[in-house]
Structure formats: C-alpha cells, structure tokens
Specification:
The structure is a single chain. The chain is an alpha+beta fold and 402 residues long. It folds into 2 domains: 184 residues, no CATH class; 190 residues, no CATH class. Strand 6 and strand 7 form a beta hairpin. The chain is built from 13 helices and 10 strands.
C-alpha cells in the first residue's frame, strides 16, 4: 500500500516537473547552505588546530610584557637573561625541552640572490620544542652554541628562493654582514595560524645571533615543551612563580611577563570557529523554512486542482486517512528529493571552497544525515495541513467542483 502511494506521489511530481523543480529550490538552497557552511567551518577549525600544533606540542611561550595575541613581537618590557633560563631549567620538572630565542627580520644573501627572512637565535632545544624535523643535514651542537659558531639551519622557503637546485648543506649564507655555514635544512611546515611563513627562517646559535646580528644579549622568548599534557597547568604555574621572584614582582602587582599555553589558544580559536559556524548554519537553516512554506503552498494548489479527483476517490470508498497519506507522502518525497540534491550541491560547494582556501575537507556524516532527516521533517510539517485539508473534503462538494 505504501509503495503504491509513493508511486502515485512520483507520478504527480512528474506531471508538473517545472513546478516541482521550482518548489524544490528552497529545500535545495537551504540544505546546500547548511552543509557547505558547517563543512567549511569544520575545515577552518581543523586547519587552525593543525597550524597551532605545528608550533610545538604541549608548548608554553614565555614573553616579557603583557599578553598580546599573535606572533612574537618586540616588547618594551625588560627582556630575559641567560640566568633566567638557567634557573628555570634547574627548578622546573616535567619539561621535555626548553629554548630561549630572539628574532630579527633581515636580508639574507646567497650569490646574486637575496630575500627577507626571519633570523632566529636559539639553542639545540629549539628544534625539539617546536617539533622541527630535518630534511637534510643536522642541527647545530652544544659546542657550537657555547662557542657562538657561524653556523645556521634554514627553512624550505630559503632553500627554494636562494639555492634552487643547489644542495644548501655546506654553503655560506650571508646575513647581517657576516657569513654562516648552512649545516641543516628543515622539513617544510607551511603557513602558521597567524598567517606567517614558518619556512622563511634561518636559525643560528643564540650567542652568534646576539654578538653578530642583534648586538645585545636580549632574549625575547622562552619556549617550554612539557612532557605530559596533564602537567602543563602545573608547569605554567611554577614558571610564573619562579619568574615573579626573579623579576622582583611585588605581591599583588601585575606580572611584567606572559606565560601562554598554546593548547588553550587552539581551543579558544576552535571554539570561536565553532560558534561562527553554528551562527552561519542557523542563518542558512532559515532557507529550509522558506522551502517548507513553498512546499505547503504548492500542495495547497495541488489540493485545489485535484479536488474533483479527491471527491471521486472518497466516493468510491477511499478513507480520509488514505487521502491524507497520499498527499503527505507526496510532500515528503518532494522534500527528500530536495534534501538529496541539496546535500550533493552543498558537499560540492564545500569541496571547491576547501580547495580554494587550502583547508581540510571536513564533511561530517552526522550533519549530512541530519540535513536529510530535517528535509523529510520539513515535508511532514508543511505537508500535513494541505493533506489534512484534502482528507476532510466533502465528497459531494468535491464532485461538484469545476
């Protein structure tokens, strides 16, 4: 019986193809918009988390001055000293690696080519803290750090821009008026969550950077990688306590430094992205309601057009509930067709957006299933009133209808 009802609904839809297609558009647009918005939002959130994870795992960033969101900047607050780093190393427990650093944007030159790059001075722990892996060569050693040797490690952008097809290992790279020997090449990381090119970098021993490039012993940042994720709050609290003592911060006074947990930043950005996605999805869902109103309108027109047909059915013995079921199934089939087409269109739009925006294609099967079910519910809700109206027609009056 149900299958016969479905076939009758399909026949009615085919009888007025153009009208049915126009009716579907509201559902198609609504479902496509919801699927596309949610998928793009999920991909954006995932990319933010992936980009932040490239900065290092379980990492704390310690900076002088008050908290500012974004990549490292030059702070006017009193910078850290090597003594601060040494005391933190000796008193903190549960730390996988620690690395002081200072950075400067300058011109690097190889042969006749040059480029602007971020030159960073640090020690051997820097590569562990920031989860760098080597494509070729090696990191500089402890002896080279202590001696302030003129050696450096470069990123993939520097290699491709300045060296091209030449093997950079062993070559001399000029930066800030002195030459350093390239001893290592880092694997590419790509863009950071803040939009900077992480591979456009040159890393050298901290003392080399301080003596030959910066002209000061200033340490701008201290990177701390915690061994276990559950220990991050404790290490963060211990770091704040130790630095307050070292920097003579009075009880009750504000810190003149910042200890930032990158995992918290990732969670905050992901939560913000989720809220924005939900808002956009809610706005897009309004199109579904508009589509539902379109279905109700067209079903009311269909009831009016087929009044005589309904009267004949009722006169020869059809029950009211059978007429109601027929028109209700017709509305549901129409809405589900729109849902299926909308899902396909939405996934296609999300795929193109993911390709164009260079974000992961993060389609959620649960959202797809929910959109399909919701389109069916739209058919039930907005198709019920016209179906109920058809079922309550008086057979005598319906047969008189012209």
């Amino acid at each position: 019986m149900l299958w016969e009802t479905v076939k009758l609904a399909m026949l009615s839809i085919r009888r007025n193809v153009l009208r049915s297609v126009l009716t579907l558009l509201g559902i198609v647009i609504g479902v496509a918009a919801v699927i596309a918005m949610v998928t793009i939002g999920s991909g954006t959130s995932q990319k933010v988390q992936d980009d932040l994870s490239k900065l290092g795992s379980n990492m704390l960033i310690v900076r002088p001055g008050q908290n500012t969101f974004g990549p490292p900047t030059v702070s006017e607050a009193r910078s850290f000293k090597e003594r601060d780093v040494a005391i933190l190393r000796s008193q903190l427990s549960g730390v996988r690696a620690m690395a002081p650093s200072a950075s400067k944007t300058t011109t690097v030159v190889f042969g006749a080519l040059n480029d602007q790059a971020t030159v960073t001075g640090s020690d051997t722990g820097f590569f562990t803290v920031q989860d760098w892996t080597f494509a070729a060569g090696r990191p500089f050693g402890e002896a080279e750090v202590r001696a302030g040797a003129a050696v450096c490690v470069i990123g993939e952008t520097i290699r491709s821009t300045l060296f091209g097809g030449i093997d950079p290992i062993g070559q001399r790279l000029r930066t800030g008026g002195f030459d350093c020997q390239v001893v290592g090449l880092l694997e590419a990381k790509g863009q950071s969550a803040f939009g900077t090119d992480q591979d456009n970098t040159v890393i050298m021993p901290l003392r080399t950077f301080q003596r030959r490039l910066a002209g000061s012993t200033r340490i701008a940042n201290i990177y701390i990688s915690v061994a276990n994720r559950e220990d991050v709050p404790r290490v963060q609290a211990d770091t704040e306590r130790i630095l307050r003592e070292l920097r003579r911060v009075a009880p009750g006074a504000e810190d003149n430094f910042t200890v930032r947990d990158m995992t918290q930043i990732a969670s905050t950005l992901a939560a913000t992205s989720t809220v924005m996605t939900a808002l956009l999805g809610a706005v897009a869902a309004v199109s579904l309601l508009v589509g539902g109103i379109g279905i109700m309108n067209i079903m009311l027109v269909s009831v009016t057009e087929r009044t005589r047909e309904i009267g004949i059915r009722l006169a020869i013995g059809a029950l009211g509930r059978q007429v109601l079921t027929q028109f209700l199934v017709e509305a549901i089939v129409l809405a589900l067709f729109g849902g299926v087409i909308g899902i396909a269109v939405g996934l296609g739009l999300a795929g193109m957006a993911a390709f164009g925006m260079a974000i992961p294609f993060a389609a959620d099967p649960r959202i797809v299933a929910l959109a399909f079910v919701f389109s069916g519910l739209i058919g039930v809700i907005f198709g019920f009133f016209p179906a109920r109206r058809a079922a309550r027609l008086d057979p005598i009056e319906a047969l008189r209808h012209e």
